[in-house]
Amino acid sequence: MDNRTMNDRKRQLEVLPDLAALVARALEQVMAVAEEAIAQRGQFTLALAGGSTPKPLYGAIAQQNLPWDAVHVFWGDERYVPASHPDSNEGMARQAWLDQVPIPPSNIHAMPTDEADPALAAERYDATLHRFFGTTAGDFPALDLILLGMGDDGHTASLFPHTTALQVRDRLITVGNKDGQPRLTFTAPFINQARHVLFLVAGENKQPALSHVFAPDDDAALYPSRLIQPQGSLTWLLDAAAGRSLP
Ligand code: 6PG
Question: pLDDT tens, 123-165?
Fold first, then answer.
């Protein structure tokens, strides 16, 4: 396994030979955080990434023997479609994982996409998170783990380049925008509150954006993944195709 680890105490970059190895390493990390969280706080709170890369990881988690009643699942972003829609991040995670395990339905905290106005849905999910964590507006509760992907334009969650969502700093959830299509998304400050953030990035097409995200100085408005600087640990897991050009 080709591991190049950055020297920062809580910053880790690992380049794995292929997607299967990346998924295996990600599973190790998810299970380690889950074990720590349940031992220390009696529950494991994690937010899922959408897209295609994490799907095999969700299938692998479904095979694990976790205390499912202690696991609470949120989503870091969602396309503004019903769960039955092929683009739905909720639908993908249910099909790949959540429908395969005896997790209490009340532990699955999906983003609402049934409001005519996505801003109202964002407010509802913001309230759902504050209610769950016992916090109020202006607080930023810490999830145990946030899984993230990165698009070939450097976006993460639904924080897309040069969109207003990048400027939102006073709440947990906001409305993202991809080519005019609304999304719901965690805000950057909420992501940065997490105890652990784990990026899963695979494929040759991610190389150019990664070089900008990892550059010492570049434009976060153009490469929003640069905004993710959590106070907790930050781990990037790349496959060789994505990580080839990194110094
Ligand atoms: C989404 C995701 C998004 C995704 C990246 C990478 O809703 O699409 O949350 O941020 O993680 O676009 O997607 P892939 O893993 O499919 O490359």
Answer: 999 999 999 999 999 999 999 999 999 999 999 999 999 999 9
Confidence of residue 3 (pLDDT cuts 50, 70, 90): very low
User: What is the chain's mean pLDDT, rounded?
Assistant: 95
Q: Which atom of ligand 1 is nearest to the CA of 54?
A: 15
Domain containing residue 137: 2-243
The b-or-e profile of 22-38 (16+ CB within 10 A means b, else e) is: bbbbbbebbbebbeebb
- Give dist(CA 153, CA 225) in Å, integer: 9
- pTM, 2 dp: 0.96
Ligand 1 centre distance from Cα of residue 76 (Å)? 10
Instruction: Write the residue with the smallest CA distance to atom 2 of ligand 1.
Output: 50
How close is the Cα of 42 to the center of ligand 1, in Å? 30
Q: How many domains does the chain have?
A: 1
Dist. CA 156–CA 88, nearest whole Å: 16
How confident is the model over 56-111, as pLDDT tens digits? 999 999 999 999 999 999 999 999 999 999 999 999 999 999 999 999 999 999 99
Domain CATH code at residue 117: 3.40.50.1360
State the distance from the centre of ligand 1 to the C-alpha of 206, rounded, in angstroms.
Answer: 11
Kindly state the tokens that stand for 73.
């699942």
Ligand 1 neighbours, Cβ below 6 Å, are 49-53, 77, 79, 89, 149-151, 155-158
- C-alpha angle with apex 232: 231 to 237, nearest 5 degrees? 120
How many angstroms does the Cα of residue 217 sit away from the middle of ligand 1?
Answer: 24
Instruction: Supply the residue whose CA is at minimum distance from atom 12 of ligand 1.
Output: 151
Q: Looking at ligand 1, which residue's alpha carbon is closest to its atom 11?
A: 149
